[in-house]
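Chain A, query sequence.
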Amino acid sequence: MLALLASTITLSDPAGDARGDGGYVLPTRPAFTPDMLDLRAFSAQPQGEGMRFTVSFTAMGNPWNAPSGSSAGVTDIFVKGSLGGQQLLADTGLRVRGQGGWAYHLRVSGGGASLVRADSQGALTRLPTPQVQVSGTSLIIDAAVPAGTYGYWVTESVYTPFSATGVLRPVTQSGPTLLQAGRADAPTPVDVLAPAGDTQVYSALTLAPVGETRDWVSLTLIALGVGGLLLTVVATVIVWRRLAGRP
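Chain A, predicted structure.
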């Protein structure tokens, strides 16, 4: 059913907001600039049986000289599940805002790409490695996510090859190789795909989905259930009237 509803979506993000809550200080060694981490647009479209995601930035950065041509950030794309899903947005320090959760988590960094699926019980399964290419200031990602129309959570963190996860975590200390923030529990993303003025991301540590945020599968199941109940009521009334009309 989702494949039949599949369509292309394109979402934009404000420029110049790759500083977390506004007070993050990026590392200067190697030479990072806010433009390298500044999310500008995200699009998703069916590609065969999977999905193609395009993530655009103000500038494409490669401070670590990765062969891929991109090594400034860690791009996390969380794909909304049809029923339930994971509430924690992996190791970003953020949670899902509202109901539902993610069923697929795609991560792209200077160290490579990965894709995992979460089942209804929360168990994670690693899926085939996504194919990633750099085109201008964009990452084009082909992933084994079933073709469909989804809601998304998209975040951008700072990449480091000296972390097991590739993510540079914020600290309250200052230094040329550190990502400085004003609080010890600051989330890792320096930018998120969200409307301008959404202050809950860094205050409540929650992120709302963007894109198709309605749960069409759940709504369809509910509609079918209501329809079935109405049919049962109508059938019962008809039988009762027939019985009542007998001599």
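The mean pLDDT is 88. Residues 215-247 form one domain.
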